[in-house]
Each structure stands twice: as structure tokens, then as C-alpha cells.
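Invent a record, attention on C-alpha cells:
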Amino acid sequence: MSEIKVDDTVDITDVVCPVTFVKAKVALEELEEGEVLSIRMNEGEPVQNVPRSIKDEGHQILKLIDREDGTYDLLVRKTGS
């Protein structure tokens, strides 16, 4: 499997829901269609809600990586929505 090229990264570990999704959405809006955003988030509510909300917006979830330190990296490809 080829390595996924990440075009930008946003860290939302310092905010709480629903601001987590808002920050992720704003970061996605700054990308071009087809580019990949890595979203660093805390376990718990953000991991449950942010991927679902991003998928509901029509973007493609590529991978959720458990960093085994209480945080996750979510890789998302921006789609033309």
C-alpha cells in the first residue's frame, strides 16, 4: 500500500466539541479538491463525532491512526461538495 501524501495538518486537541468539527471544517475549506488533511484529535467525543460529521459533509475518510498517546490522526481527502 502506498503512503498517503498529507497536504496540510490541523491540531484540534486544544478545543472541545462542537468547536473541534468547526476547526476541522475550516481547515478543509482551505484545501483544494483532492488534497488530504491530517486532523490531530483527542480520543473520546472528537473521535466519535468529527469523522462522522466530515463524512456527512461529503469528504472521504482515508484512515484513522491511533497514536497510542490519547490522540488520533484522521486523514481526510477533500471532495467537491
